[in-house]
Predict the structure.
Amino acid sequence: MYSTNGNNIPRIGFYICHCGHNIASIVDVVEVQKYAATLPGVTVSRDYKYMCSDPGQELIQQDIKEHNLNRIVVASCSPLLHEHTFRLAAEKAGLNPYYFHMVNVRENVSWVHDNKEQATEKAKDLARAAIKRVFFHKPLEKKTVQIKPDVLIVGGGIAGIHSALTIANAGKHVYLVEREPTIGGHMAMFDKTFPTLDCAACILTPKMSAVKSHPNITLWTYSEVEKIDGFVGNYKATIKRKPRYVNEELCVGCLDCIEACIYKEAKYPDEFNLGLSKRKPIYIPFPQATPQVVLFDPETCIDFKSHRCKKTCIEACERNAIDLKQTAKFEEIEVGTVIISTGFKTYDPKLSPQYGYGKLPNVYTSLEIERLVNASGPTAGEVVTRDGKKPESVGIIHCVGSRDEKSNKWCSRVCCMYSLKLAHLIKEHTGAEVYNFYIDMRTPGKGYEEFYDKFMNEGVHFIRGRVAEVTDWALVPEEENKLTIRVEDTLIGVVRRIPVDMVVLSVGLEPREDASEIRRMFNISCSSEGFFLERHPKLAPVNTFTDGIFIAGACQGPKDIPDTVAQAGAAAEALSLISAGKIELEPNTAQVIEKYCSGCKSCIPLCPYTAISFKEDIKKAYINEALCKGCGTCVAACPSGSITQNMFEDEQIFSEIEGLLKFAGIELEEKEVEHA
Amino acid sequence: MLSSDKKWEPRIIAFFCNWCTYTAADLAGVSRLKYAPNVRVIRVMCSGRVDPQFILHVFASGADGVLIGGCHPGDCHYSEGNYKMLRRFMLLKRMLKKMGIEEDRCRLEWISAAEGEKVKSVINDMVEKVRKLGPLGIPKRISKIDKEIKIIEKEINPEEAVEHA
């Protein structure tokens, strides 16, 4: 009746997990267990508190040996979580792991339904379908692929830098690709870091130069990943190196060219200082930029526009490093693993017009203040308003673009802490009265609450309430020529108006604008807010659903520097793959059964990996297993049914459908009709 | 007997792709979103694996609806399997219509791994729509037709019909 590969009649072991109360509180597991025991082929049927635990797995292994089981069905959580665990358990007992099938009665049943009776019925249906399905399972061999030892890291902020150094120190080669002309990311813009108040540059710049000088790191700044193909262990990437119009090998960063530029005064907004200072068309982002190489901005350089510049910069360069005819270069590399650490962007406060950013000149973002308090910033560390005055009072507004239904719902995690830090730094630099307007103070982390306590005693004012607006419309003489913050102080229950000279908006963290394009290119997922999605928040926080692609840092979600560096342990995941040297892939590939193939070629254009070719001599299609990734599109399309997919064979799915549809009523209905 | 005692409930089979929609269903579970218990999910690697024959077989086996969930256009884990599914789906829809199977009984939805909420709303919406349409009952209809054919066969050629029996 059933095809069972060889002569062995299926002897199925069925196990249903209570998962503590997670499953058992909604699904009557004992009833499902008893029901499964009555189904054809089932030799053993058990329920157990935690199937994934060691004793649970041993139960399966013991039964395999004792009852000579040759098929295993486990009804528990999602296969995405524990399929691997149970397959391994079966394998240890000497059973081919692909004789196993998993039923999801937690995420698909107990967690999403309230009605116990209906949930139990559903669990029974799913169990029956799986039991019918495993009749058709076949023993399969895992596909092993080699892992190329080189690693590509996308994004050279602190996450990318730390990952790159970890891997390079382990003796593996890293390609670090950074879009901006320098590595360092947001951290390079900060003056001090919380909670230790140590200088960001002192921690970061040695790491940056270590990256530059490391023999195992190829650093490509001002570059972007153009294309990536392949699969775990064997990725081929094309990196576009945008033209700097300066030969990176020749430039030593003497900056004579900048001095010699025909523009005597810098007149274009400086990106690194967020437009708070000016730069020339030829520039270096900041003094410690790594690599120490200048670049041209073709948008502002006269020569690019009119070709009539005197080119004093070229004359000034002793090493002839300037090459105005430079074009984009494309590098092709082969890597085994990829770490994506593309970071975040800050919320654009213009989208919350009540705070007046962009309209009222003395409303700043927190990142701008970071530059102002920075000793190497546009004012050399002087905190001054746009008219050059030292502020006497400063208001810091928390949660701008965070915890807000109108902008971003999430807490950005870092703002409370950096607002405290900025309050302290502003007070230190100017002696101003500083007001913090907060909804809740969130300071979880080692030494963080103590940091908060310290500043409460330092005389920083804390006002609890979401700010309604920032206005320059004075109602009383004290508000003249000031910015007034209108807020309901929810602790005393009154609306207050507080005049200040400067307003700082603590902007939240958001995914980068092009996170979606990156996601598509690397074939990974995003969570609903747009940050990259990890494979599992606890068990695989730096893995993605695509093997060999890891994520680190704030591209996965808002994070402070310590957490980012800790997460740059994505490097460890990459390294563990590299040192294993190989990885086993699911054998869910497709193959052509030659005798049924009519040679119609309809499958060939369907394959996105060009895995299918046509054998002219025998007029049959052929699937290259090494290229096949196992989507099954060709299988579904083959008109003669001559292509099969391992683990998802037609008869397996048909039997699953039939198993599912023997709903309590149906068989009876059919019989009724027959009898009538 | 039993079928008349019990209130009829829509029976829907869903094919969810491993990477987006199945993950979204897991997310719905982890988020403890509650939805109608009428849908049974079959996991496939890609919506492109869903053979129109599966859908026909589901209907023929007595289901009242089929839901197919894949990644959003452009997000397919296998580049374009979801487009391939879409093409087939358009053809199949026309065919189902001709067979008298209402449009709302077969549905294709793009649900990304982040859209647990959408799994819930799509399933609830579909269950309601199918509930309004009532049971499809293809197996019943087929057996009725079979019986009629047998009667006709008997009338045409009584001896052969006896042989068959």
Notes: Residues 158 and 671 of chain A are 69 Å apart (CA to CA). Residues 1-7, 663-676 of chain A have pLDDT under 50 and may be disordered. The two ends of chain A are 28 Å apart (CA to CA). Chain A touches chain B through 61 residues (CB under 8 Å).
